Amino acid sequence: MIHDLSHVVHDGMPVYPGDPEVRIGAGLTIASDGVEVARISMGTHTGTHVDAPSHTVAGGRTMASVSLDELVGEAIVLRVRAGDGETYGWSDLDPGGALPDILPPIVLISTGWDALFADDRRRLRHPALDPAAAQMLVDRGVHVLAVDTLSPDPTGGAAFPVHDIVLGADHLIVENLRGAAALPDRVRVGFFPLKVSGDGAPVRAVAFT
C-alpha cells in the first residue's frame, strides 16, 4: 500500500513567513489556445519539501548534488505530543529508552501538527525540536530528518539551530509531512523532489506498507 504524505500544492496555500506566495493561474486555456496549461509561481520550500544543505550553510550542497538514494529507504516514526510553541527533546522522542544506538537513515517525527496546516492562528506556533536531540539523531546515524511542522526549529525566530546541526552535517531535512501519525513505527519511505538545482525542492512524499 502507498501512503501519500504530501500536502496539496494550491493557489494561496500556507507558506513559511516571508517565503514567496504560491500563485497558480491560467497560462493557456482551451477556449483561447486549445489546451489547458497552468502558470505556477512558488518558492523552493513550498508545501512538503526537502531542504538541501545550501539552504542555511554557505557553500553547502544544492539539490543538484542530492541523490534519490539519500531520500529513499527504511525509516522509523517517532511520535511526540507537544503544545503550542513547546520544545520536545530526547526524552520525548525516546520515552522508554528503547531506541537503538544506530537508527535507520530516515526519521519521521509525528507531532500531529499537520492537522493544523491550514490553521492561520496555530500553524506558526508549532512545537520545535531541541537542538541537543537533533545532534543525538545525527550521532545515531540519521541522514534525513522529516517533520510534520513548518520547521524543526521555531518558526519566526532569527536562529535555526536544528538546521545548523542537520544541514551542517551535510544531511537533509524534510518539512510539512502529512499523515505520518497513521504509519507503523517502521516503514519504507521515499521523498521524490522536483529535479531543480537550488536550496530545496517540493517533494512527493510517500510511505510503503
Q: In short, what is this structure?
A:
By secondary structure, the chain is an alpha/beta fold. Helix content is 12%, strand content 28%.
Give an overview of the whole structure:
A hairpin with a 6-residue loop joins strand 11 and strand 12. This protein is globular. It has a seven-stranded mixed barrel. Helix 3 runs parallel beside helix 4. The protein has one domain: Putative cyclase (Glucose Oxidase, domain 1, 3-Layer(bba) Sandwich), CATH 3.50.30.50. With 209 residues, it is of the alpha/beta class.
| CATH superfamily label | Putative cyclase
Q: Note the run of SSEs as H and E.
A: EEHEEEEHEEHEHEEE
- Summed up, the domain count is 1
CA-CA gap between termini: 5 Å
Tell me the major beta sheet: 7 strands, mixed, barrel
InterPro entries: KFase/CYL, KFase_sf
Pfam families: Cyclase (PF04199)
Keywords: Hydrolase
Protein name: Cyclase family protein
Question: Layout of SSEs?
Answer:
Layout: E1 2-4, E2 23-28, H1 30-33, E3 37-41, E4 49-51, E5 72-79, E6 87-88, H2 90-93, E7 106-110, E8 128-129, H3 131-139, E9 144-147, H4 161-168, E10 172-175, E11 186-193, E12 200-208
Helix pairs in contact: 3-4
List keywords for this structure.
Glucose Oxidase, domain 1; 4 helices; 12 strands; globular; EC 3.5.-.-
